[in-house]
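Structure (tokenized):
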């Protein structure tokens, strides 16, 4: 009997490829800034796809809150004002606080080494990105620290909800660099991890309130909203 042929995993669709290209332009390369228009006909022409594909790709990005639909004006790259930023941080705080509660409930305080290991590794990666003065890498490493905290709760629903918020925070910071002294982010997050088992929600709220304040200050410095 001939061995069963293993089917190759399906590749990304045209819609997913276009969404990934636009996501990269928004979050990584900065080619698309908050408020920039995204017209279906232009996307279809520039990327050699159908308008249906362009429309479906924009729908994927709307689900990530990277794109908004403006009545009578089409789609635009999303813009988070101070009120929206505050609401986003409140939701992050709620999810992260519940994750911390579950981790402590299951593992006690202080958290054992095997629980802390992925978090500490994420902070090490953050320190490396900071030392290289690579802001894009620093953003992703910073997100990975918070993701590691949430994933330690072993709650797929909380992790999925938290992951959906990452793109919005990256959208804010991709075009803005708050005043973090060199090396301070990694050190701040080491202290944050140390505080979580005992201070739980209070530590989460203080940490996110501080980052929100720095983001708003950076916006004011460049004349943002």
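Design, position by position:
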């Amino acid at each position: 009997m001939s061995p069963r042929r293993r089917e190759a995993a399906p590749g990304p669709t045209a819609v997913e490829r276009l969404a990934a290209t636009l996501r990269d332009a928004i979050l990584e390369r900065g080619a698309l800034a908050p408020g920039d228009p995204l017209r279906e006909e232009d996307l279809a022409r520039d990327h050699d796809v159908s308008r249906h594909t362009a429309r479906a790709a924009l729908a994927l990005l709307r689900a990530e809150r990277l794109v908004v639909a403006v009545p009578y004006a089409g789609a635009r790259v999303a813009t988070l004002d101070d009120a929206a930023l505050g609401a986003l941080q409140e939701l992050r705080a709620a999810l992260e606080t519940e994750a911390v509660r579950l981790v402590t409930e299951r593992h006690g305080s202080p958290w054992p080494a095997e629980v802390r290991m992925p978090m500490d590794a994420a902070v090490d990666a953050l320190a490396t990105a900071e030392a290289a003065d690579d802001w894009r890498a620093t953003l992703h490493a910073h997100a990975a620290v918070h993701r590691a905290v949430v994933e330690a709760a072993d709650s797929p629903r909380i992790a999925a909800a938290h992951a959906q918020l990452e793109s919005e925070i990256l959208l804010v910071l991709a075009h803005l660099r708050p005043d973090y002294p060199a090396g301070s982010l990694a050190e701040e997050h080491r202290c944050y991890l140390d505080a979580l088992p005992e201070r739980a929600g209070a530590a989460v709220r203080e940490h996110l309130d501080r980052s929100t304040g720095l983001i708003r200050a950076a916006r004011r410095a460049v004349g943002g909203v």
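Reviewer-requested clarification: Residues 184-221 form the longest helix (38 residues). The radius of gyration is 20 Å.
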